[in-house]
């Protein structure tokens, strides 16, 4: 996968990758020569011997895979070569692994040494094939590595937590993997320090952010239900209208035949509960089953037998009436000015993470609800001025408008070193034989990038469009977004976000050659 400048050959971006089958597309991009072994230089199938008898003789000379400016950034001379080979992706050929433990036939290192025409680039070393005994020694070493092993001797070690995906996740802040993979915070909640936190005065209970000061199923805390017929006020369960809590229910002990006068006192057969006493008849009161009730005031038989008022309501003249400022919603008197599940009206649910203020859903402290999360659209770069309006890399959100980041960036001092470290190496983007004609070395890179068309794209994008990182294909390549073709650059690994921001800030400031 390559992308190119207008008027030049196609070239790979930010190096570390080249898929063209050319002399430059080398995983062991070496133009050095191989020396003949001397007596005693016999290879044994261990990496120390291989490095000493094969790499030192045929690969790690200056200008090739030496420790200083190694070709294709592959150092075969210094200590730690195992980490640079075992389970390491090829820096120049897509979907290739240099050394696959236990499987020399799948190792790109062997393919480059054994085949006259490997799948990508040229045979290594390019000046002539290695002796068959040397290749066999390398194959024997690879075959002896435990399958799935990593250079530190472990297995399947990951440089970061990926939670089964392709990208690293931060368990301390990721709301979909908060504290542990798969632990999802309620919609609208944030993840901080590996713990979910609901906004405002709401509490995370299961998969919802709730107001435990009024929630009947979570009164005062998660999973603390109130008795049937009671209400939750200030995080405390209470039976309304003079009712008493008996065996998990709010009952009228003046008329309940199972709790007549006191909880658990049951009237016998033929008796009714009248005024808290078991009597033979109800007298002037109405008989509802075995209860003697005044249907003009009874909250359990208001206006007629069996007509129970909502929790918190009173029965006045045979009519159920909720206290002022509340409404009967789903069997309870609810303050619709503050309840996020009934905000302004019964059943009107506020978006997760928002609160109910004066009967209207609102984000705590102001802001807007974007995708179920409360954000400050004046400062949030992902929702700048409006939900979904994302600022480009290198821009900040100030007053609801995307602007270039503050501070000056020097191309020579801040940007060029990024290219020099990651791109401008022997065998890659440096010198007269730079890969695909793209020289990103000192004194060359600025002219190769600024206002140069990216011919992979047909939408007119430039590699670097001064003042507009969002329309600079260089940034797209670095961030692996909105690509016209191919994959991100560099192919191996990812540039640190701080370096990408530096490049974006430079572009945002006009991409000066300063």
Explain this structure.
The chain is an alpha+beta fold. Helix content is 14%, strand content 14%. The protein contains 8 helices and 24 strands. The strands form 12 sheets. It has a two-stranded antiparallel sheet. The protein has a two-stranded antiparallel sheet with strand order 3-4. Helix 5 crosses helix 8. The chain is elongated and about 115 Å long. The two termini are 31 Å apart.
Secondary-structure topology with pairs:
Layout: E1 3-4, E2 10-11, H1 47-58, H2 81-85, H3 108-114, H4 132-143, E3 190-192, E4 195-197, E5 203-205, E6 208-210, E7 231-233, E8 236-238, E9 244-246, E10 249-251, E11 272-274, E12 277-279, E13 286-288, E14 291-293, E15 314-316, E16 319-321, E17 327-329, E18 332-334, E19 355-357, E20 360-362, E21 368-370, E22 373-375, E23 395-398, E24 401-404, H5 411-422, H6 445-449, H7 473-479, H8 497-508
Antiparallel strand pairs: 1-2, 3-4, 5-6, 7-8, 9-10, 11-12, 13-14, 15-16, 17-18, 19-20, 21-22, 23-24
Précis, in short:
The chain has helices spanning 47-58, 81-85, 108-114, 132-143, 411-422, 445-449, 473-479, 497-508; strands spanning 3-4, 10-11, 190-192, 195-197, 203-205, 208-210, 231-233, 236-238, 244-246, 249-251, 272-274, 277-279, 286-288, 291-293, 314-316, 319-321, 327-329, 332-334, 355-357, 360-362, 368-370, 373-375, 395-398, 401-404. It is of the alpha+beta class and 514 residues long.
């Amino acid at each position: 996968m390559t992308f190119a400048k207008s008027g030049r050959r196609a070239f790979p971006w930010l190096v570390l990758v080249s898929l063209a089958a050319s002399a430059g597309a080398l995983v062991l991009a070496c133009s050095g020569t191989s020396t003949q072994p001397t007596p005693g230089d016999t290879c044994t199938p261990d990496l120390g011997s291989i490095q000493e008898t094969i790499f030192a003789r045929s690969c790690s000379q200056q200008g090739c895979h030496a420790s200083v400016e190694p070709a294709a950034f592959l150092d075969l001379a210094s200590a730690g070569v195992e980490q640079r080979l075992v389970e390491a992706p090829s820096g120049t050929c897509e979907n290739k692994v240099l050394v696959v433990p236990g499987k020399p036939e799948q190792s790109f290192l062997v393919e480059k040494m054994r085949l006259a025409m490997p799948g990508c680039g040229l045979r290594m070393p390019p000046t002539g094939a290695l002796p068959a005994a040397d290749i066999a020694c390398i194959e024997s070493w690879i075959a002896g590595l435990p399958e799935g092993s990593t250079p530190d001797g472990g297995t399947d070690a990951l440089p970061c937590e990926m939670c089964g995906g392709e990208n690293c996740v931060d368990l301390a802040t990721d709301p979909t993997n908060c504290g542990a993979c798969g632990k999802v915070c309620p919609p609208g909640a944030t993840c901080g320090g590996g713990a979910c936190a609901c906004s405002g005065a709401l509490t995370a209970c299961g998969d919802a952010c709730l107001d435990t000061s009024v929630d009947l199923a979570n009164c005062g805390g998660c999973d603390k239900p109130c008795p049937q017929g009671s209400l939750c006020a200030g995080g405390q369960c209470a039976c309304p209208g003079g009712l008493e809590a008996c065996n998990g229910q709010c009952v009228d002990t003046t008329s309940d035949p199972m709790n007549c006068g006191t909880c658990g006192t049951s009237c016998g057969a033929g008796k009714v509960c009248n005024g808290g006493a078991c009597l033979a008849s109800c007298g002037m009161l109405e008989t509802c089953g075995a209860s003697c009730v005044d249907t003009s005031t009874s909250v359990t038989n208001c206006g007629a037998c069996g007509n129970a008022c909502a929790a918190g309501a009173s029965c006045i003249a045979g009519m159920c009436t909720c206290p002022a400022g509340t409404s009967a919603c789903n069997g309870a008197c609810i303050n619709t000015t503050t309840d996020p599940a009934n905000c302004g009206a019964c059943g009107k649910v506020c978006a997760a993470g928002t609160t109910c203020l004066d009967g209207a859903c609102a984000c705590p402290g102001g802001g807007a609800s974007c995708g179920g999360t409360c954000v400050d659209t004046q400062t949030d770069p992902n929702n700048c001025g409006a939900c979904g309006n994302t600022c480009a890399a290198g821009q900040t959100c100030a007053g609801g408008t995307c602007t270039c980041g503050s501070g000056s960036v020097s191309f020579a001092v801040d940007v060029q070193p990024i290219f020099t470290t990651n791109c401008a190496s022997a065998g890659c983007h440096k010198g007269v034989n730079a890969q695909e004609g793209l020289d990103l070395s000192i004194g060359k890179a600025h002219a190769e990038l600024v206002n140069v068309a990216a011919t992979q794209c047909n939408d007119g994008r430039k590699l670097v469009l001064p003042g507009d990182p969002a329309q600079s294909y260089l940034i797209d390549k670095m961030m692996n977004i909105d690509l016209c073709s191919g994959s991100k650059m560099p192919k191996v690994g990812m540039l640190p976000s701080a370096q990408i921001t530096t490049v974006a800030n430079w572009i945002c400031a006009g991409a000066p050659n300063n």
